[in-house]
Amino acid sequence: MPLLNKLCTATPGSHGGDPAPHSLTRLRAALTVFFALDGFLFAGWVVRIPAIKQQTGASASGLGLALLGVSAGAVVTMTLTGRLCRRFGSHPVTVAAGVLMSLSIALPAMTHSTLALGLVLLVFGTAYGGINVAMNSAAVDLVAALRRAVMPSFHAAFSLGGMIGAGLGSLVAAGLSPAAHLFALTGIGLLVTAAAGPMLLRHTSPVPQEPSAPSWDKARSATTRTPAQAPARLTGRTRRLVVLFGVIALCTAYGEGALADWGALHLEQDLNARPGVAAAGYSLFALAMTAGRLTGTTLLERLGQTRTLVAGGATAAAGMLLGALAPTTWLALLGFAVTGLGLANIFPVAVARAGALAGPGGVAAASTLGYGGMLLGPPAIGFLADWFSLPVALTTVAALAGAAALIGYAARTAQAPEPLPASDPVPARGRQAAVFDDVADAGAGTRTG
After folding, report:
1. For position 413, what pLDDT does the model report?
2. Dihedral class, residue 24 (left if φ above 0, else alpha if ψ from -120 to 50, else beta)
3. Distances from the Cα of 298 to the Cαs of 149, 301, 304, 345, 428, in angstroms?
4. What phi and psi values does residue 433 have, to the nearest 5 degrees?
5. H-helix or E-strand containing 236?
6. Of 185, 174, 63, 189, which Cα lies nearest the Cα of 114?
7. Cβ(441)–Cβ(420) under 8 Å?
């Protein structure tokens, strides 16, 4: 409970003319619950993958193609969710996707063939993609209103939910059937959505109070897009920067997806770990990510985005080499933990900056590319496992983590000119926002996490 309280407690700072700071606190708490629920449900499915593989009789490559359903459904939905958020608001879309995800998680346990598994995972992926874009869009707006680099705390809630979901799964893996487990998760998901959903539905996305913003915040506010402020079109340079953030997200999401889908199987198959220990591998990874993200705000404010990205990518690369090639279960688990620490804040920074540049459309674009890493990962690792071995296949996670670090460093001086509505009060000199401005980040913090 103290950890959950830390995640949900806001310290808004100065809101100037904000008439309802307590409303922002409650809104942050409700949104944090949805991030945690997303991680909890996804991890609950992940730890049952070995049992579902046995139930359907799928080969490694067949399972990889079936898992493609999650990523394919997510990516297709993500391209549409940005538009839905602009039309209906990110809060209602978050609640609707939460309901669908809760219902669809029970479907894999009802399948007995690889084809059927792939089809139901398409539905699950649709809900997963929708809730991720919607709640990240809501988080970008809320972070802008709070004017603090709290985006990592939302993703820490996702990781905490994943840790709890995976830990629970590891406890029941030996004694509870996949059907009973996943149906129980459906009930939990619906109850949590019913409890937290009304708070989101009662509030529209907050709008930052520009007149009272401090000078550094006002200069960066040109890149903070609320639904009412979103420009009609973006410059080509801004689109390219959004794509850049998406590629960084892709490199790290590939790693998260690989450990989620193949980590337990690697421990059980290649290192002869017991089912409970194998399932705990993802829980340890999620715990490390939670710890990294809980310290993400402090890390970003002190080091800046470039140093955070480069250090994180290098750490994840080293950890995954250990996790993939270690000869013992315990060394592999240590590698998983180090990988989680390294990857912790890369994806939140990438998606948040894309959202700051282009609103829900930016979140959708970066998330689509990011989860394209999950689209590429399952079949790629499955086929590489058949051609070489699963440990060799998992070393591709280290390669892409290193690539994310290199891209982050190469883009350290990138800037994006942003078009603004004619009525925007920000002066022209504030309309160019540094993407990886370490000086400003270290001195004032990154508002978008």
Report:
1. 62
2. alpha
3. 8, 5, 10, 11, 31
4. -105, 130
5. helix 236-269
6. 63
7. no
Q: What are phi and psi of 415, to 5 degrees?
A: -135, 150
In the block, which residue shows the tokens 């160019």?
A: 432
Residue with tokens 């009060």: 425
Q: What b/e readout covers 73-91, taking b as 16+ CB neighbours within 10 angstroms?
A: bbbbbbeebbebbbeebbb
pLDDT tens digits, residue range 302-330? 888 788 889 999 999 999 999 999 999 99
Query: For residues 120 and 201, what is the distance between their CA atoms, to the nearest angstrom?
Result: 28
Enumerate long-range contacts of 175-183, CB under 8 Å, 24 or more apart: 177/109, 178/48, 178/51, 178/52, 178/55, 178/108, 178/109, 179/106, 179/109, 179/110, 181/44, 181/48, 181/109, 182/44, 182/45, 182/48, 182/105, 182/106, 182/108, 182/109, 183/106, 183/109
Asked if residues 149 and 300 have their Cβ atoms less than 8 Å apart, the reply is yes
Residues 6 or more apart in contact with residue 418 via CB below 8 angstroms: 222, 223, 231, 234, 235, 238, 357, 431, 432, 433
Rounded-to-integer distance, Cα 191 and Cα 194, Å: 5
pLDDT for position 92: 95
Residue 234 confidence (pLDDT) = 61
If you search the block for the tokens 């970003």, which residue do you land on? 300
Cα distance between residue 136 and residue 174, in whole Å: 35
Which amino acid, 94?
A: T
- Type of residue at 136: N
